[in-house]
Amino acid sequence: MGYDLDMDSSIVEPDSLEVNIIQQLDAGVRYFDLRVARKLNDTNPTRLYFYHGLYTHSDVETVLGMFNDWAERHPKEILVVALSHFKGMEEPIHIHLLNFITTLFGAKLIHKTDHPTLQFCWESGRHVLISYDFPANQYPGMWRKIPYFYGNTMEPSEVITVLDEMLQTQRPPNYFCVCGLNLTLPEDFSAFKYLGKTLKSATIKDMSTLLDWVKRQDPGAPNACVNIIATDFVNYLDFVSTVIKLNDKLMVK
Count of CB atoms within 10 A of residue 245's CB? Predict the structure, then answer.
């Protein structure tokens, strides 16, 4: 949701940060890492927003509706939406959001007790997986947190080193995990004032190095570790097509 940040700054151009949700879906993106928060003093007690340091313009229910509309039009595409952080949210707001998600996606939700192969998803019509990083045991359509591995650095070589180590030592067996290729600004950096010019340019500059790491992965190997792959600014270079091509190795095997 970086494209939708509500930036009160003449330096940043929000429209240049990232393509919108529908454009990302149309480009082949199938995993979304979304942080949820409630604005302080919002007159609507259940209105929520996504955020990445700053709140988005669009509220959560509107954006989830976009996901649902797209899923309706593409019944054979599998979507994984990870919701997390939930700042400023008490339990009643969680219940409201969980009920909204359950009602909105309905029969399209993949249950946490399912074993979602492509064949299962296509035959059952369940093709939207919601990971909800907050206790929601009574909701069969909610999956637990998906671990997100990332380097927490601006150096691509260090990102790769950390990912290799974490995949070997912390990858959960028989469950999803995310390899985050995103670069991370230092905590003392004025990140949001210069986000469009600094993080974006650094990510694009180093994307080829990170994509070389992706190309070396073999999801069909006996000790395969790679699963979901994510990054910022997914519309640059060949990120999406490079990730999708990993499936060719599975088909060959």
Answer: 12
CA dist., res. 83 & res. 74, Å (int)? 22
Q: What is the pTM of this model?
A: 0.88
How far apart, in whole angstroms, are the C-alpha atoms of residue 1 and residue 37?
13
Domain check: are 85 and 45 in the same one? yes
**For residues 202-216, average pLDDT:** 88
Q: Can you give the CATH number for the domain in which 16 is found?
A: 3.20.20.190
Handedness of CA 197, 155, 214, 115 (dihedral sign): negative
Q: How many domains does one find in the chain?
A: 2
Residue 156 DSSP label = H
* Same domain as 120, residue 15: yes
Instruction: For residue 68, give its domain range.
Output: 2-143
Assess contact for 5 and 193: CB atoms under 8 A.
Answer: no
Measure CA 119 to chain center: 23
Among 223, 222, 214, residue whose Cα is nearest residue 247: 214
pLDDT band at 150 (very low <50, low <70, confident <90, very high): very high
The reply to whether 49 and 81 lie within a common domain is yes
245: left (phi over 0), alpha (psi -120 to 50) or beta: alpha
